[in-house]
Amino acid sequence: MRPNERPAAMPITPSPRPRPQREGLTEHDRTHDTALVILDMISCWSFPDADALARAARDMTPVIARLKRRCVAAGIPVIYANDNSGQWRSDFKFLVRSSLESAGPGADITRQLEPGPDDFFVLKPKHSAFFATPLEILLDHLRTKRLLIAGVAADQCVLSTAADARMRDFEAVVPADCIAALNPLRSRRAVDQLHDALEIRTPPASALRLARAPRARA
Questions:
Q1: Does any domain span residue 172?
Q2: What is the pLDDT of residue 134?
């Protein structure tokens, strides 16, 4: 290089979503540009204010169950994102088993939404399903661009996950009849925040179009 000669600028190539990932556990799974994320519905409901939230969750469980069946029929991956409740020695199968064996509404909710062998799961330490979890890597493996988000609580984990999805350039859709909070007022406020501030669509689950259109791998 001659004196005072500047080095050639290196071209910067953006990496649009979906980002390429190495093959792994999902290499033989059907990919789809949509995924369903079910938040914190697998639970023993043993935390403060659990009774009120469990009642609201139980009322909407059949709606989420119908949406899940439609997603499975359309080849859309289903991902359970569940709070580990500070139990760092537990795993998702333990949570499912504990919920099924629990008293109260937890067992009935879990029976209706029980994960199948082809479903995915992540354990989360905080509100958002993206924070300190492998969710984003899994979604990139599945070639996901759009997330359908369901579960509890509407004004906490659902809202945090939807906001984080938007920040990561995913399209987020939150069916209003598939989320619940401690009371109807808090649920309505969460829907308003999603729709008005974050510009996230909140249609009823029955209005969602779920075309069976898995995308071939590159």
A1: yes
A2: 95
Taking the complete model, does pTM exceed 0.90, yes or no? no
Cα(86)–Cα(171) distance, rounded to whole angstroms?
Answer: 30
Mutual orientation of helices 105-113 and 50-73 as an angle, nearest 10°? 10
On whether residue 81 sits in a domain, the answer given is yes
Burial class (CB in 10 A: 0-12, 13-18, 19+), 23: exposed
Report the largest interatomic distance among the alpha carbons of the chain, rounded to a whole angstrom.
Answer: 79
Number of domains in the chain: 1
CA 18 to chain centroid: 17
Contacts of 16 (CB under 8 A, 6+ apart): none
Taking 3-state DSSP, the helix, strand and coil percentages for the chain, each rounded to the nearest 5, stand at 40, 15, 50
Residue 134 in any domain: the answer is: yes
For residue 106, the enclosing domain spans 34-207
Report the pLDDT value the prediction gives residue 138, as an integer from 0 to 100: 95
2 found inside a domain: no
Euclidean distance between CA atoms 72 and 119, whole angstroms: 9
Report pLDDT digits (tens) over 39-78.
999 999 988 899 999 999 999 999 999 999 999 999 999 9
What's the CATH number where 139 sits? Answer: 3.40.50.850
